[in-house]
Input
Amino acid sequence: MTRTVISFLLLSGLFAGVMPVQAENVVVTQAWVRALLPTRTMTAAFLTIENHSEREEKLVGVASGRVKTIEIHGHSHVDGMMRMRQVQSLAVAAGETQALEPGGFHLMLFDVDASLVEGDSLPLILEFESGLQLSIDANVKSVLQE
Ligand SMILES: [Cu+2]
Output
């Protein structure tokens, strides 16, 4: 297959994923990012995914123009200690709501644009296994506001 055809297929997949009728069924609310601490380039983001559709939606990736790498993390107890661990995806069952919040699932942001400050907003693109893509803005909040 030529590169042009591949690009076209990728593009059409993208457009199919952001059709309004589909996007309305999955709503992201309460998106926020913990402001960077001085000299740090890593932080976490939190949000709530409401799945109003009739099928499971699985979050498989998150991207931002201002962050190099974003991982989906969960927590597990290892020898009585809470440890973060990366998960490959996060499923939200039909009709369910999944919160990503401190102490639970969260997005881990690595190599964050150092100019990101409190009061700023960070654009995030959430990618679901179904091809659905949601663009949202997460508010940057100081740890003191938590
Ligand atoms: Cu983490």
User: Anything to note?
Assistant: DSSP finds two helices and ten strands in the chain. Confidence is low (pLDDT under 50) at residues 4-22. The beta strands are 26-34, 43-51, 57-63, 67-78, 81-87, 90-92, 97-100, 106-112, 121-128, 133-141.
